[in-house]
Amino acid sequence: MRKNRNLIVLNIIVILGALVMVFPFLWAFITSISPGAGLSSTPQLIPDNPSLSAYVQLFDRLPFGKIVLNSLGLAVLTTGFQLITSSLAAYVFSRMPFRGRNVVFAVYLATMMLPMQVLVVPLFVEMKTLGLIDSYLGVLLPSIASAFGVFLLRQAMNSVPTELDQAATLDGAGHFRIFGLIVLPLVRPALATLTVFSFLNSWNSFLWPLIILRTPEMKTLPVALAGLQGQFTTQWDVVMAGSVISILPMLALYIFTQKYIIQGVAGTGLK
């Protein structure tokens, strides 16, 4: 009886927490279909005169399709590069011992402590020297490697038995075959977790694209949405329409990789 009562209380807490988490997204969608809605208005679950006019205005004001493609392309490329660089570095730190390996790994992880705001000026000077201002490569280049990704995948690769490597070596396999045919398939949950995290960070990136990109048609989604906010008045239904569109790719990605994310976080010991 007591166990059932505790289970009921736990379910109620989980449901209330889920409602608290979902409400901002629900409010954003309701605001986007409520013409003239503002932040000070009381949210209504059923709008009086629902309309998609805010979405029409959004695409009329901005080349929104191009902006979404900009963010999507950068996010896909960033995720792809981080998967490649992080998995290769993680394999080296996990499977190839060398003098000072732990020190190098610790120094590499220490870069996670540096906030982006500290790196903006030297990175901008570097991109200017390379002639990459107002270019997609200038946005992409600083994010092709991820210290967090190396840490995540190294933890996952450490859980793969080294006996598999030894057996493959006896069969004549080298490091690249062991890496591609044995280790990577066994750390797919961690790879899926890194995919979601990398895509999310790139998709929501604001500061660096704001500094590097100057041409309006090259803007990313967060920068374009910030430009919709006026100095004195703001059409919040239009802003929320853009926010709803920006949520959809991440929601779809998470739904398809949810199982692997849970396995990856549990397997790597992250809390």
From TrEMBL:
> In the record, which residues are listed under signal peptide?
none
Q: Where is the ABC transmembrane type-1 domain?
A: 68-257
Q: Topology versus the membrane, per the UniProt entry?
A: Multi-pass membrane protein
Question: Transmembrane region positions?
Answer: 7-30, 67-93, 105-125, 137-157, 178-200, 238-256
Database matches in Pfam families: BPD_transp_1
Chief site of localization: membrane
Give the CC-aspect GO terms: plasma membrane
Q: Which PROSITE patterns match?
A: ABC_TM1
InterPro entries hit by this protein: MetI-like, MetI-like_sf
- Please provide the record's keywords in A-Z order: Cell membrane, Membrane, Transmembrane, Transmembrane helix, Transport
The UniProt similarity line reads: Belongs to the binding-protein-dependent transport system permease family.
What is the designated name of this protein? Sugar ABC transporter permease
Specify the species: Arthrobacter psychrolactophilus
